[in-house]
Design brief:
It contains four helices and 19 strands. The chain is 11% helix and 55% strand. The chain is mainly beta. The chain has one domain (3-275). The protein is globular. A ten-stranded mixed sheet has the order 2-1-5-7-9-11-13-15-17-19, with helices on one face.
Protein backbone atom coordinates (compact mmCIF):
# COMPACT_ATOMS: atom_id res chain seq x y z
CA UNK A 1 0.00 0.00 0.00
CA UNK A 2 1.65 3.29 -1.04
CA UNK A 3 0.68 6.83 -1.87
CA UNK A 4 -0.17 5.92 -5.48
CA UNK A 5 -2.92 3.63 -4.25
CA UNK A 6 -4.62 6.23 -2.06
CA UNK A 7 -4.28 9.43 -4.11
CA UNK A 8 -7.89 9.04 -5.27
CA UNK A 9 -9.22 9.27 -1.71
CA UNK A 10 -11.94 11.88 -1.24
CA UNK A 11 -10.19 12.82 2.01
CA UNK A 12 -6.41 12.52 2.11
CA UNK A 13 -4.18 13.58 4.99
CA UNK A 14 -0.40 13.19 5.11
CA UNK A 15 1.11 13.62 8.58
CA UNK A 16 -0.92 16.59 9.91
CA UNK A 17 -1.68 18.32 6.64
CA UNK A 18 -4.85 17.74 4.60
CA UNK A 19 -3.76 17.15 1.02
CA UNK A 20 -7.14 16.70 -0.63
CA UNK A 21 -10.88 17.04 -0.02
CA UNK A 22 -12.91 16.16 -3.09
CA UNK A 23 -16.31 17.47 -4.10
CA UNK A 24 -18.81 14.62 -4.11
CA UNK A 25 -22.40 15.20 -5.20
CA UNK A 26 -24.77 14.35 -2.36
CA UNK A 27 -21.98 14.19 0.22
CA UNK A 28 -20.43 16.89 2.38
CA UNK A 29 -16.79 16.36 3.37
CA UNK A 30 -15.12 18.83 5.71
CA UNK A 31 -12.38 18.97 8.32
CA UNK A 32 -14.04 18.14 11.64
CA UNK A 33 -13.24 21.57 13.09
CA UNK A 34 -14.96 23.28 10.14
CA UNK A 35 -18.05 21.11 10.63
CA UNK A 36 -18.07 22.00 14.33
CA UNK A 37 -18.02 25.69 13.42
CA UNK A 38 -20.52 25.53 10.52
CA UNK A 39 -23.07 23.02 11.89
CA UNK A 40 -23.85 23.50 15.60
CA UNK A 41 -26.30 20.54 15.40
CA UNK A 42 -23.44 18.09 14.86
CA UNK A 43 -21.65 19.07 18.08
CA UNK A 44 -23.73 16.58 20.07
CA UNK A 45 -21.86 13.81 18.27
CA UNK A 46 -18.44 15.08 19.33
CA UNK A 47 -17.20 14.50 22.88
CA UNK A 48 -15.22 17.75 22.62
CA UNK A 49 -14.20 20.39 20.12
CA UNK A 50 -12.13 18.56 17.47
CA UNK A 51 -8.63 19.61 16.51
CA UNK A 52 -8.17 17.29 13.55
CA UNK A 53 -9.99 14.65 11.56
CA UNK A 54 -12.79 14.57 9.01
CA UNK A 55 -16.57 15.04 8.86
CA UNK A 56 -18.53 13.13 6.21
CA UNK A 57 -22.28 13.65 5.82
CA UNK A 58 -23.92 11.39 3.22
CA UNK A 59 -27.18 13.09 2.25
CA UNK A 60 -28.07 11.44 -1.07
CA UNK A 61 -27.59 8.13 -2.86
CA UNK A 62 -24.08 7.50 -4.21
CA UNK A 63 -22.90 4.68 -6.47
CA UNK A 64 -19.20 4.46 -5.53
CA UNK A 65 -17.17 3.90 -2.35
CA UNK A 66 -16.14 6.78 -0.14
CA UNK A 67 -12.41 6.58 0.59
CA UNK A 68 -10.46 8.29 3.35
CA UNK A 69 -6.73 7.95 3.87
CA UNK A 70 -4.54 9.19 6.71
CA UNK A 71 -0.84 8.43 6.37
CA UNK A 72 2.42 8.96 8.22
CA UNK A 73 5.52 9.89 6.19
CA UNK A 74 7.72 11.85 8.61
CA UNK A 75 9.58 10.62 11.67
CA UNK A 76 8.10 11.28 15.15
CA UNK A 77 4.85 12.81 13.89
CA UNK A 78 1.83 12.60 16.22
CA UNK A 79 -1.68 12.56 14.73
CA UNK A 80 -4.83 13.16 16.79
CA UNK A 81 -8.07 12.75 14.80
CA UNK A 82 -11.73 13.09 15.68
CA UNK A 83 -13.84 11.70 12.82
CA UNK A 84 -17.59 11.78 12.28
CA UNK A 85 -19.62 10.03 9.57
CA UNK A 86 -23.39 10.49 9.27
CA UNK A 87 -25.46 8.45 6.81
CA UNK A 88 -29.01 9.61 6.24
CA UNK A 89 -32.13 7.43 6.10
CA UNK A 90 -32.32 4.44 3.75
CA UNK A 91 -28.99 5.12 2.02
CA UNK A 92 -26.63 2.27 1.09
CA UNK A 93 -22.96 3.23 1.44
CA UNK A 94 -19.60 1.52 1.07
CA UNK A 95 -16.70 3.27 2.79
CA UNK A 96 -12.99 2.49 2.93
CA UNK A 97 -10.81 3.93 5.68
CA UNK A 98 -7.04 3.52 5.17
CA UNK A 99 -4.53 4.45 7.89
CA UNK A 100 -0.86 3.63 7.38
CA UNK A 101 2.83 4.43 7.51
CA UNK A 102 4.49 4.97 4.16
CA UNK A 103 8.00 4.27 5.48
CA UNK A 104 9.69 2.10 8.09
CA UNK A 105 10.93 3.19 11.53
CA UNK A 106 8.97 6.43 11.67
CA UNK A 107 8.15 6.12 15.39
CA UNK A 108 4.88 7.90 14.73
CA UNK A 109 1.78 8.14 16.90
CA UNK A 110 -1.69 7.77 15.42
CA UNK A 111 -4.67 8.44 17.70
CA UNK A 112 -8.13 8.33 16.13
CA UNK A 113 -11.57 8.64 17.70
CA UNK A 114 -14.53 8.12 15.40
CA UNK A 115 -18.30 8.08 15.54
CA UNK A 116 -20.46 6.67 12.74
CA UNK A 117 -24.21 7.30 12.75
CA UNK A 118 -26.53 5.15 10.63
CA UNK A 119 -29.95 6.76 10.42
CA UNK A 120 -33.12 4.65 10.10
CA UNK A 121 -32.82 2.07 7.31
CA UNK A 122 -29.27 3.06 6.38
CA UNK A 123 -26.75 0.39 5.34
CA UNK A 124 -22.98 0.68 5.65
CA UNK A 125 -20.22 -1.64 4.51
CA UNK A 126 -17.13 -0.16 6.17
CA UNK A 127 -13.70 -1.56 5.30
CA UNK A 128 -11.04 -0.30 7.71
CA UNK A 129 -7.44 -1.14 6.83
CA UNK A 130 -4.34 -0.44 8.91
CA UNK A 131 -0.70 -0.96 7.91
CA UNK A 132 2.04 0.33 10.22
CA UNK A 133 5.76 0.22 10.74
CA UNK A 134 6.86 -1.65 13.84
CA UNK A 135 8.04 1.47 15.70
CA UNK A 136 4.61 3.20 15.59
CA UNK A 137 2.07 3.54 18.39
CA UNK A 138 -1.63 3.38 17.43
CA UNK A 139 -4.86 4.00 19.35
CA UNK A 140 -8.17 3.63 17.52
CA UNK A 141 -11.53 4.10 19.26
CA UNK A 142 -14.69 3.88 17.13
CA UNK A 143 -18.37 4.00 18.03
CA UNK A 144 -21.20 2.99 15.70
CA UNK A 145 -24.85 3.83 16.34
CA UNK A 146 -27.31 1.88 14.21
CA UNK A 147 -30.83 3.24 14.31
CA UNK A 148 -34.00 1.29 13.50
CA UNK A 149 -33.70 -1.14 10.55
CA UNK A 150 -30.10 -0.12 9.84
CA UNK A 151 -27.43 -2.63 8.82
CA UNK A 152 -23.68 -2.44 9.52
CA UNK A 153 -20.81 -4.60 8.29
CA UNK A 154 -17.52 -3.41 9.77
CA UNK A 155 -14.35 -5.18 8.64
CA UNK A 156 -11.04 -4.21 10.27
CA UNK A 157 -7.78 -5.69 8.99
CA UNK A 158 -4.26 -5.12 10.27
CA UNK A 159 -1.59 -7.54 9.04
CA UNK A 160 1.33 -5.15 9.73
CA UNK A 161 1.03 -4.25 13.38
CA UNK A 162 2.77 -1.41 15.24
CA UNK A 163 4.73 -1.91 18.43
CA UNK A 164 1.64 -0.99 20.45
CA UNK A 165 -1.95 -1.15 19.29
CA UNK A 166 -5.10 -0.30 21.23
CA UNK A 167 -8.32 -0.92 19.31
CA UNK A 168 -11.75 -0.25 20.81
CA UNK A 169 -15.01 -0.71 18.92
CA UNK A 170 -18.43 -0.09 20.42
CA UNK A 171 -21.70 -0.63 18.55
CA UNK A 172 -25.23 0.32 19.59
CA UNK A 173 -27.90 -1.69 17.76
CA UNK A 174 -31.49 -0.45 17.94
CA UNK A 175 -34.85 -1.94 16.90
CA UNK A 176 -34.60 -4.45 14.02
CA UNK A 177 -31.07 -3.24 13.24
CA UNK A 178 -28.13 -5.53 12.47
CA UNK A 179 -24.40 -5.25 13.10
CA UNK A 180 -21.52 -7.56 12.23
CA UNK A 181 -17.89 -6.92 13.22
CA UNK A 182 -15.06 -8.80 11.52
CA UNK A 183 -11.62 -8.09 12.99
CA UNK A 184 -8.43 -9.68 11.65
CA UNK A 185 -5.02 -8.87 13.16
CA UNK A 186 -1.54 -10.33 12.84
CA UNK A 187 0.88 -9.31 15.58
CA UNK A 188 4.65 -9.42 15.28
CA UNK A 189 6.70 -8.20 18.27
CA UNK A 190 3.59 -6.25 19.26
CA UNK A 191 1.61 -5.39 22.39
CA UNK A 192 -2.04 -5.46 21.30
CA UNK A 193 -5.16 -4.74 23.35
CA UNK A 194 -8.60 -5.11 21.78
CA UNK A 195 -12.06 -4.40 23.12
CA UNK A 196 -15.24 -4.93 21.11
CA UNK A 197 -18.73 -4.36 22.47
CA UNK A 198 -22.12 -4.79 20.87
CA UNK A 199 -25.11 -3.34 22.72
CA UNK A 200 -28.40 -4.89 21.60
CA UNK A 201 -30.87 -2.22 22.73
CA UNK A 202 -33.88 -2.73 20.46
CA UNK A 203 -36.43 -5.46 19.81
CA UNK A 204 -35.24 -7.94 17.16
CA UNK A 205 -31.77 -6.40 17.09
CA UNK A 206 -28.97 -8.69 15.89
CA UNK A 207 -25.24 -8.46 16.46
CA UNK A 208 -22.16 -10.62 15.91
CA UNK A 209 -18.41 -10.34 16.44
CA UNK A 210 -15.89 -12.46 14.51
CA UNK A 211 -12.36 -12.07 15.80
CA UNK A 212 -9.22 -13.66 14.34
CA UNK A 213 -5.84 -13.00 15.91
CA UNK A 214 -2.44 -14.45 15.01
CA UNK A 215 0.74 -13.64 16.93
CA UNK A 216 4.44 -14.33 16.66
CA UNK A 217 7.90 -13.23 17.86
CA UNK A 218 7.04 -12.17 21.40
CA UNK A 219 3.63 -10.65 20.73
CA UNK A 220 1.28 -10.15 23.66
CA UNK A 221 -2.34 -10.00 22.47
CA UNK A 222 -5.46 -9.57 24.58
CA UNK A 223 -8.95 -9.56 23.10
CA UNK A 224 -12.02 -8.76 25.22
CA UNK A 225 -15.30 -9.16 23.34
CA UNK A 226 -18.68 -8.35 24.86
CA UNK A 227 -22.33 -8.54 23.92
CA UNK A 228 -24.93 -6.79 26.08
CA UNK A 229 -28.58 -7.70 25.44
CA UNK A 230 -31.24 -5.52 27.06
CA UNK A 231 -34.08 -6.33 24.64
CA UNK A 232 -35.50 -9.38 22.78
CA UNK A 233 -32.51 -9.84 20.47
CA UNK A 234 -29.81 -12.21 19.20
CA UNK A 235 -26.05 -11.99 19.50
CA UNK A 236 -23.01 -14.17 18.85
CA UNK A 237 -19.26 -14.00 19.54
CA UNK A 238 -16.70 -16.06 17.62
CA UNK A 239 -13.14 -15.51 18.86
CA UNK A 240 -10.15 -17.41 17.43
CA UNK A 241 -6.45 -17.11 18.15
CA UNK A 242 -3.40 -18.69 16.53
CA UNK A 243 -0.09 -18.80 18.40
CA UNK A 244 2.68 -19.08 15.82
CA UNK A 245 5.65 -19.56 18.19
CA UNK A 246 6.43 -20.20 21.85
CA UNK A 247 7.30 -16.59 22.64
CA UNK A 248 3.77 -15.29 21.98
CA UNK A 249 0.78 -15.05 24.32
CA UNK A 250 -2.85 -14.65 23.25
CA UNK A 251 -5.69 -14.13 25.72
CA UNK A 252 -9.33 -14.19 24.60
CA UNK A 253 -12.09 -13.09 26.98
CA UNK A 254 -15.65 -13.45 25.64
CA UNK A 255 -18.34 -11.87 27.83
CA UNK A 256 -22.10 -12.22 27.46
CA UNK A 257 -24.39 -10.00 29.54
CA UNK A 258 -28.11 -10.63 29.18
CA UNK A 259 -30.81 -8.71 31.03
CA UNK A 260 -33.88 -9.74 29.00
CA UNK A 261 -35.45 -13.18 29.16
CA UNK A 262 -36.19 -13.24 25.41
CA UNK A 263 -32.63 -12.48 24.35
CA UNK A 264 -30.33 -15.19 22.99
CA UNK A 265 -26.58 -14.64 23.09
CA UNK A 266 -23.93 -17.29 22.37
CA UNK A 267 -20.17 -17.55 21.99
CA UNK A 268 -17.32 -19.70 20.70
CA UNK A 269 -13.66 -19.18 21.58
CA UNK A 270 -10.51 -21.11 20.70
CA UNK A 271 -6.74 -20.64 20.71
CA UNK A 272 -4.50 -23.03 18.81
CA UNK A 273 -1.09 -23.41 17.26
CA UNK A 274 0.20 -24.15 13.77
CA UNK A 275 -0.83 -27.67 12.77
CA UNK A 276 2.20 -29.98 12.52
CA UNK A 277 0.54 -32.27 9.97
CA UNK A 278 -0.15 -29.32 7.69
CA UNK A 279 3.46 -28.18 8.08
CA UNK A 280 4.80 -31.62 7.18
CA UNK A 281 2.55 -31.83 4.13
CA UNK A 282 3.60 -28.42 2.84
CA UNK A 283 7.27 -29.20 3.48
CA UNK A 284 6.85 -32.37 1.44
CA UNK A 285 5.58 -30.21 -1.43
CA UNK A 286 8.82 -28.24 -1.51
CA UNK A 287 8.16 -25.31 0.83
CA UNK A 288 10.62 -24.42 3.57
CA UNK A 289 9.54 -24.03 7.22
CA UNK A 290 8.97 -20.27 6.97
CA UNK A 291 7.03 -20.47 3.70
CA UNK A 292 4.84 -23.30 5.01
CA UNK A 293 4.08 -21.45 8.25
CA UNK A 294 3.19 -18.23 6.43
CA UNK A 295 0.83 -20.12 4.12
CA UNK A 296 -0.98 -21.72 7.08
CA UNK A 297 -1.28 -18.39 8.90
CA UNK A 298 -2.60 -16.64 5.78
CA UNK A 299 -5.21 -19.38 5.39
CA UNK A 300 -6.29 -18.98 9.02
CA UNK A 301 -6.70 -15.22 8.71
CA UNK A 302 -8.58 -15.38 5.40
CA UNK A 303 -10.85 -18.33 6.24
Amino acid sequence: MDIKNVCNAQFLQIDNRIQNISFVKGVEILPSLTAWQNYPWCRKYFSRKPRGGYFIWVKEKISFPLVTCVSLTTKNVSQNLTNLIIIEKNLDVTAKGICNSLANNLSGTHIATGKIILKEGARLNYLHWHKWSHSDIVQSNYEFIGEKNSKLLYSYQNLFSPSRLSLKTNVVVKKKAQARLEIVIKGKRSKINLEESINLQGKDAQGAVYLKLAGEKGSDITGISRIYATAPSKGHLDCQGLVIDKSTTISLVPQLVCSHKQALVTHEASIGRVNEDQLLYLRSRGLNQKEATELIVDGFLKK
